[in-house]
Design goal:
single chain
Length: 403
C-alpha cells in the first residue's frame, strides 16, 4: 500500500481516532486515511477497559469533559441502537463508606445536576441494599444514566462508517517519521509512505511522540498508568447487579477500585492504578528502557511523585498483594473473599503530565501548522467519542481552512 495520498491522515485507530475520521468525512469532501500501527483497531486503551458508558457525574461543569460526555453519551446510545450494537443503560450506585466522604458525595450530586443529569437519588444504607443487596455504606447516590457497552464493536462500526464515506483504514502501519513535503507531509509507515495535506494525531499512548515527529512540542509527557482487573468467579456474579463505585478521591484523577457488570456477561473488579514501566505494559513485568528513562528524566514526574507517593505505594501494594486488593473491594461489598476473584485483564491509560507535575484532568488539543494533536483524552473519551470526534474534526477543519 505504498504511495497512499490523501487530504487528511488520522494517526491512531482507537475509538477517538476513528470517531474523528468519521466526523471529518461527514463534514467535508476530502480523502482520508486512518493510520494505525497495530494489526487491529482498538488494540490499546479502547479495547482494554470495562465498557462503562459514563454519565458525566464527576466532571467540572463547563469543562470539555462535561460537555462532551453529556452530548456524547446520548449520541453513542443512538449509534448503538441504529447499528444493532448491544448497549444497556443500567445505572450505578456510588457508595460512601465513611462519614468524611459525605461532602464529596454531595458535590458529585451537585456536579451531576449541573451537567444535566436527571433522576439522581441520594440513598441511605437500606436504600443502597434495595438496589445492590450486597453493597454496604453510610450513604449512596444512584445514577440512572450510567450504562455498559463493548467499545471494540463500537470502534469497528465507526470504521465501517469511515469506509462507507470513502475513507481508508490502514492497519499494521506504525508511523516512524514525519517529513515536510511542500504544502503537506509525508508519513513513513510500516506499509510505505502516506502523503497528506493535513495531519490529525489521535495516537493515545504515543501522541506526544507523534507530535514531536511532526515538529510540534506537545508541552506534556504521556505517562502510562496500568490498571489491573480481577473478575468474579461465575458462581459469585450475583454479588453485583450492575455497577458499584466508591466515592473518588478529589485529589487523584482515578476513580478507585469498583465493580462493573459487563455487557457480554460477568463482573469485573478494579482497576488499581500503577505506574507502568512501558507504554504498552500490560503486565507487572513489562519493561521498556526507553519508556522508563523518558518518564524518569522528565522533571514533572518527580514533582508528581512527591505529591502522590503515598497513594502510589498503596496502588503498587494492591498490585502484588491480592489480599490488599480484596480489602479495597470489601469496603464496598463486605462479602467478597479472595476465592471469589480470578485474575482478569489490564489496561494502560495514557495520562498527560505537565512540567509542573500536574496530571491533566481535561482533554488537551494542540494545533500546529496543518496539524491538530489530541494529547490528552482520558475517561470518558470512549463514552464521549462521537462528541469528541466532532469537536476534534471541527477544530481540524477550521484550522485547515476546509470549512
Amino acid at each position: 500500500m505504498a504511495g497512499t495520498r490523501v487530504d487528511v491522515a488520522v494517526v491512531g485507530g482507537g475509538i477517538v481516532g476513528v470517531a474523528t475520521a468519521m466526523a471529518v468525512l461527514a463534514r467535508a469532501r476530502v480523502s482520508l486515511a486512518v493510520v494505525e500501527k497495530e494489526p487491529r483497531l482498538a488494540a490499546h486503551q479502547t479495547g482494554n477497559n470495562s465498557g462503562v458508558i459514563h454519565s458525566g457525574l464527576y466532571y467540572k461543569p463547563g469543562s470539555l469533559k462535561a460537555r462532551n460526555c453529556t452530548a456524547g453519551r446520548e449520541a453513542l446510545l443512538r449509534f448503538c441502537s441504529e447499528h444493532g450494537i448491544p448497549a444497556e443503560r443500567c445505572g450505578k450506585v456510588v457508595v460512601a463508606t465513611r462519614a468524611e466522604q459525605l461532602p464529596v458525595l454531595e458535590e458529585l450530586r451537585r456536579r451531576g445536576e449541573a451537567n444535566g443529569l436527571v433522576g439522581l437519588r441520594r440513598l441511605g444504607p437500606e436504600e443502597i441494599r434495595e438496589i445492590e443487596p450486597h453493597a454496604a455504606g453510610v450513604a449512596g447516590l444512584f445514577v440512572p444514566q450510567t450504562g455498559i457497552v463493548d467499545y471494540v464493536r463500537v470502534t469497528e462500526a465507526y470504521a465501517e462508517e469511515v469506509r462507507r464515506g470513502g475513507g481508508e483504514v490502514m492497519l499494521g502501519a506504525p508511523v516512524r517519521k514525519v517529513a515536510r513535503d511542500g504544502d503537506g507531509m509525508v508519513l513513513e509507515t510500516g506499509k510505505g509512505e502516506v502523503r497528506c495535506r493535513f495531519l490529525v494525531n489521535c495516537a493515545g499512548l504515543h501522541s506526544d511522540r507523534v507530535a514531536r515527529l511532526a515538529g510540534v512540542e506537545p508541552g506534556v509527557l504521556i505517562v502510562p498508568f496500568r490498571g489491573e482487573y480481577y473478575r468474579l468467579v461465575p458462581g459469585r456474579n450475583d454479588l453485583v447487579r450492575n455497577l458499584v463505585y466508591p466515592v473518588p478521591d478529589p485529589e487523584f484523577p482515578f476513580l478507585g477500585v469498583h465493580f462493573t457488570r459487563m455487557v457480554g456477561g460477568g463482573v469485573e473488579a478494579g482497576p488499581n492504578a500503577v505506574l507502568a514501566l512501558k507504554r504498552e505494559g500490560y503486565t507487572r513485568w513489562s519493561f521498556s528502557l526507553r519508556d522508563t528513562a523518558t518518564t524518569f528524566a522528565y522533571p514533572g514526574f518527580w514533582r508528581m511523585a512527591r505529591s502522590y507517593w503515598r497513594m502510589g505505594f498503596g496502588e503498587y501494594w494492591r498490585s502484588f498483594d491480592k489480599r490488599a486488593f480484596v480489602r479495597g473491594l470489601q469496603a464496598l461489598i463486605p462479602e467478597i473473599e479472595p476465592a471469589d476473584l480470578t485474575p482478569g485483564g489490564a489496561g494502560v491509560r495514557a495520562q498527560a503530565l505537565d512540567p509542573s507535575g500536574r496530571l491533566l484532568d481535561d482533554f488537551r488539543i494542540v494545533e500546529g501548522e496543518r496539524q491538530v494533536h489530541v494529547l490528552n483524552a482520558p475517561s470518558p473519551a470512549a463514552t464521549a467519542s462521537i462528541s469528541i470526534g466532532a469537536t476534534v474534526a471541527a477544530t481540524a477543519l477550521r484550522s485547515f481552512g476546509l470549512v
